[in-house]
Design brief:
This protein has helices at about 5-25, 30. With about 35 residues, the protein is an all-alpha fold. The chain has one domain (about 5-25). The chain is rod-shaped and about 45 Å long. The termini are far apart. The model has no long low-confidence stretch (mean pLDDT about 90). Keywords: Membrane, Transmembrane, Transmembrane helix.
């Protein structure tokens, strides 16, 4: 694992979390309701 690979992983993790939250938030009322 090189420095560039670690930097990419560290940069992608928050992006994946944000995108996942954006996709899941509109679905919450359907599951909650």
């Amino acid at each position: 694992m090189n420095t560039f690979g670690i930097a990419v992983l560290v940069g992608l993790v928050p992006v994946m979390i944000i995108i996942g939250a954006l996709f899941m938030t509109p679905l919450l009322p359907y599951y909650a309701g």
